[in-house]
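Risk register update: the risk of archive-format incompatibility is retired. Evidence:
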Amino acid sequence: MKSKPVIALVGNPNSGKSSLFNQLTGLRQKVGNFPGVTVDKKSGTAFLNETTEISVIDLPGVYSIYPKSVDEQVVTDILANPQHPDYPDVAVVVVDASNLNRNLLLFSQIQDLGVPVIMALNMLDIARQQQLEINAVRLSMQLGVPVVKINARIGEGLELLKVAIEQQIGQPTVSETLFFDPGQQTALAGHDMKGLISDVRQQYQLTNNYLALQYLIQHDGFSFLGQPQRVKLDGLIEKYQFDDVDFQAKETIGRYKRIGEVVKTVVTDKRPLDQSTWSQRIDQILLHPVWGYAIFATVLLLIFQAIFAWAQPFVDGIDAGVAWLNGTLHDQLPDSPLTDLLTDGIIAGVGGVVVFIPQIAFLFLLVSLLEESGYMSRVMVLMDRIMRQFGLNGRSVVPLISGVACAVPAIMATRSIGSWRERLITILVTPLMSCSARLPIYTILIALVVPEKTVLGFLNLQGIVMMGLYLLGLVAALVAAYAFKLIIKAKERSLFVMELPTYKWPRWNHVGITVWDSVTSFVWQAGRVIVAISIVLWVLASYGPGDALEQAENRARSQYANLPTEEVENRVASGKLEASYAGRFGKILEPVIKPLGYDWKIGIALISSFAAREVFVGTIATIYSIGSADEGNDSTIREKLAAEINPETGEPMYTPAVAFSLLVFYVFAMMCMSTIATVYRETKGWKWPMIQLAYMSVLAYGSAFLVYQLMK
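Archived output:
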């Protein structure tokens, strides 16, 4: 039983559906999965009045109820099944007023399914800019449903929409006359459609002709139908010689014919025939085959410049604050294992990631601005020309760009790709895009070995190196995609079709919600892993087999007795760490990673970061806190890394050769259990995740080896 009414937001991509969702729910929203499938479900709560609370579900954007991809299948699977837990009490269909013809196709299909509907007529301001006037009252009379004028970007018309929803919940109205009645289309189909539809309704206790048609056309995709039911429907199709593909095409033509008649009566078009919109004029530059790519490269460069320039003061402040807190707690609390766990384990580990929140927030902020403005859609169209050469298409750009934030939702976003081969290739190469979990590693290592100076008077050298790492990941993804294109064969060809939204000023409240959700999600997910690993790592680094730590201490004190007291204590701490369980694991791995320039301490960080890449910095911070006698000092993470000495050479451990070897290693390394689990779930087996892990590991090791050997 539903605890509260369910309202589903449905609409074409770029119709403003997600904007309306944010206006209704604000921060009262969450992301999960639809029941029974792994497709993302964005849901939240809203209040129609002081007492009535509703559950709002943002369904994936679709152009029609006939799905072309996995995420689109969810929409029909819900709207065609009244027993589904997310079946709506009211469906609010968000319609782009500037493109009424196309949007009414989906609206009329949902209305014909028998779902109580409300039309939210959005983007009227854009329609007016295009000199289109829409009579909403006449449109409501033509369709027989409530039509509410809204502006989802600024929340205009929201109260009127809530009133309409409340009325539909209280007294739902469903039109008895179908926009397109398949039972009356015998002439169109060339056989007895009335008899066929009647048989389906009778066998499955349906009361709606159009829903019966969907049982015939989409029964293989409906999760709520069992195999015996599908076999019976196949029997009816064969009995009546029903051609579902041909009928679907004729249905679309028939709907558009009637939609055209409706639009003529409700829309007044004052546009000159040869007048182009300002969005089209801008697109002539941004989608230019030469200038378009140059502008996109410039935008990327500015983003990475901003990440370093704007975020650095905040990073330095947090870094110093964490170091001060650690030192203060170590001085004030009694000397005990619990104090060491808190300061050298948990705070050192978590502080290693928290310090990079400003840079992650700025990255999400700038990417969100590109999406809100409409420019990101242009990037997809622009990159389609390149992607096709590598076995991908323009829709692959969405997961690849999303991979800059996190590979897990990026891989799930591949469900919008209709071609199985292109979807699989996109899944296999998306983790090569540098995600936000790599950002802490990049920033700390770049800051160590790349001087903070400007190039050409205004470009930050560290920002240029950062952009180079991201571009290296993109180039590797394209090369890997081309290799998989030659290996994975498929007969089908895919088309890339995307509607370009008009350019808009970003909605700062939506940008804020996006940044807040992304950062809190990153911190929460990373924080849980880091706390757990920091505790385990502290135990492994603080204890060893038998009296190994005592023996290591005695050896160090006798061997370095002539050195100053502080130096002796540092040697003791380092020796005890080396003799601990963690040190022994690192020593086992050291022969394998020594050709890359890494020692056993870095080896410990490599092992722990297999859980999640961002753990690397936290592990390094913990290891160097434990391996130093002055554990209570207020050194920052960067200062600890800079002070680390290679015992074999007596030189700093983190030379440019070692730092760039690590940077390249983490550009290519998989090292994320969540990503592996997601690939397993999306490909329904271990074959492709293991292939992905193997090729990325070989690529990471080989590239890091070459970089170190060439630079040392």
